[in-house]
Amino acid sequence: MIVERAPAKLNLLLWVGQPRADGLHPLCSVFASIDLEDGVRVEPAPGGEDTVLCRSVAGENLATRALAAYRAAAPNAGLAPVTVTIEKRIPVAAGLAGGSADAAAVLRAATKLSARPLGPAGLHEVAAALGSDVPSQLEPRAALVQGVGERVEALALAPMAFVLVPSDDGLGTPEVYAELDRLRASGAVPGRARLDPEAARLLATGPVTELAATMENDLEAAALSLRPELAGSLDALRDAGALGVRITGSGPTAFGVFAERFEAEAAALGIPGAMVAAAS
Q: Do both 214 and 135 map to the same domain?
């Protein structure tokens, strides 16, 4: 049996370019891996066929697709049928990449259980085909991500803590990107002509006070356009003393940055439904 960590991530910086010919948006993103984690257990299947069990996700999820994609890419890996059990702690459809983290954990476990595992390059290719957040989760850590998620560079961030304010109703990533395109086409929000990884690295390596004050998320305007009430969560975090606040990824989770965990824990007491996490 293999047990894998599947940590959530928070986008501290997310710059989104214009869509490519294939419809995908190039991006430049800095994110923190946090200690809010799903648990993924992979073990031999008693029934002789692959099964993915996750009470919080109805029907097929990304972990199921990840296992099938691994088998298709490595048909001679010698991976026996497995049962995957996912214990969800990360809110679903929250902009925290929980599904991608689970999928990456399944890929890592599959390589460990294979007699002839897929190599790193092949595993990365499988991850990239599953979605833009999966490659970076193969080795959970803070990272700078470019392209459409396939170019991943490890980063060292200053220690920091977070208060997360999730929402009961999720937001679909394609819907948020479509809203961003609409807002840009109408002139309601500016486009981004250039994605500058060097500027992103410089911001990421600064002290937590500077990083928190300069966080950006190009998808935030689209998330707020679709769900205006999320502005209330951002206001609550500011009022609680956060150094900086943002919507993470495509939302709807809002988060605030704090220098110390005890500060985050004190702030969370006054915000209904708030969760506390730290960079891991």
A: no
3-class secondary-structure state, position 188? coil
- Which of 9, 88, 102, 218 is flagged as catalytic? 9
Q: Which of 38, 88, 102, 133 is catalytic?
A: 133
| Whether residue 112 lies in the annotated active site | no
Q: How many domains does the chain have?
A: 2
User: Each residue of 213-259: pLDDT tens digit?
Assistant: 999 999 999 999 999 999 999 999 999 999 999 999 999 999 999 99
Judgement on whether residues 194 and 105 belong to the same structural domain of the protein? no
pTM of the entire structure?
0.93
Q: Which long-range contacts (CB under 8 A, 24 or more apart) does 46-50 make?
A: 46/83, 47/81, 48/81, 49/81, 50/81, 50/82, 50/83, 50/84
Q: Are residues 140 and 204 in the same domain?
A: no
